[in-house]
From TrEMBL:
This is Metapyrocatechase. It comes from Pseudomonas lalucatii. PANTHER family: FOSFOMYCIN RESISTANCE PROTEIN FOSX (PTHR36113:SF6), LYASE, PUTATIVE-RELATED-RELATED (PTHR36113). It catalyses: catechol + O2 = (2Z,4E)-2-hydroxy-6-oxohexa-2,4-dienoate + H(+). Belongs to the extradiol ring-cleavage dioxygenase family. Keywords: Aromatic hydrocarbons catabolism, Dioxygenase, Iron, Metal-binding, Oxidoreductase, Repeat. One of its GO terms (molecular function) is catechol 2,3-dioxygenase activity. PROSITE patterns: EXTRADIOL_DIOXYGENAS (PS00082), VOC (PS51819). Its cofactor is Fe(2+).
Length: 307
């Protein structure tokens, strides 16, 4: 049921060195630097995104994710969702407009999994980067690196998946697109969507709360994913696995690490869903094939390297 949450809006990542992180996200991934603030944070976006930023980099002593933000329809929705979050039992923090440059007031809350999320209704509209709004060309000619199309989703590792599922479905209006069930039928992975995408956020059962697995960026074609693999080798970037295909979502993918150890994904394709579809189910005994469809075996780094 639609609760007024539109789509993923941004993610703030902790990095150990801002300049090396900028070289990674701007020159390799192909995001565009849009701004910096008094705290030293760097704001970036992918070229098709119409709002000012989708990735914020903050220099810190440890890598990881500070929070993921979702855009809501309007201020009325934001007020109503704030009440719903409080009624669910979430601790809610109101953050003033402008604390993130170009972003309106934000409502931050912690999911039972330990991760921080936030909702906002307003962000500076800058339009797609490098092309006109009237009679636009197909793409800008001066894109860098992998030429990321959009920030797509994040995958989190944490506990209390059932309570987190209730929060995202009953309060925020997500639906379950795909899942992994263990032998006794307990859900150990959940892929949640607001849209026709395979997922907008996903959670995998993990004993420790609040761990970050990856931020994912969409590319248009399999050839773009192969080109991304070439660029990863050309730049001696640390690779996790790929190019390959997922069983879950059936997206074509490659995983790699930023200089701080945060995992990134670029992918193309994948299944589409509508909210009336039954969830796609994979069994835990087939998890190797579910995650890496071709190898049919798990890469140990994929399960254990988290920030």
């Amino acid at each position: 049921m639609n609760k007024g949450v539109l789509r993923p809006g941004h993610v703030q990542l902790r990095v150990l060195n801002l300049e090396s992180a900028l070289a990674h996200y701007r020159d390799l991934l192909g995001l565009i630097e849009m701004d910096r603030d008094e705290q030293g944070r760097i704001y970036l976006k992918a070229w098709t995104e119409v709002d000012k930023f989708s990735v914020v980099l903050r220099e810190a002593a440890e890598p990881g994710m500070d929070f993921m933000g979702f855009k809501v329809v309007d201020e009325d929705s934001l007020n109503r969702l704030t009440e719903d979050l409080l009624n669910f039992g979430c601790l809610v923090e109101n953050i003033a407009a402008g604390e993130l440059k170009g972003c309106g007031r934000r409502v931050r809350f912690q999911a039972p999994s330990g991760h921080f999320f936030e909702l906002y209704a307003e962000k500076e509209y800058t339009g797609k980067w490098g092309i006109e709004e009237v009679n636009p060309e197909a793409w800008p000619r001066n894109l860098k690196g992998m030429r990321a199309v959009r920030f797509d989703h994040c995958l989190m590792y944490g506990d209390e998946l059932e309570a987190t599922y209730k929060l995202f479905t009953e309060v925020l209006g997500f639906y379950l697109a795909e899942q992994v069930l263990d032998d006794d039928g307990t859900r150990i992975a959940q892929f949640l969507s607001l849209s026709t995408k395979a997922h907008d956020v996903a959670f995998i059962q993990h004993a420790e709360k609040g761990k970050f697995h990856h931020a994912s960026f969409f590319l248009e074609t399999w050839e773009d994913v192969l080109r991304a693999a070439d660029l990863i080798s050309m730049t001696d970037t640390s690779i996790d696995i790929g190019p390959t295909r997922h069983g879950l979502t059936h997206g074509k993918t490659i995983y790699f690490f930023d200089p701080s150890g945060n995992r990134n994904e670029v992918f193309c394709g994948g299944d589409y869903n509508y909210s009336d579809h039954k969830p796609v189910t994979w069994l835990a005994k087939d998890l190797g094939k579910a995650i890496f469809y071709h190898d049919r075996a798990l890469n140990e780094r994929f399960l254990t390297v988290l920030t």
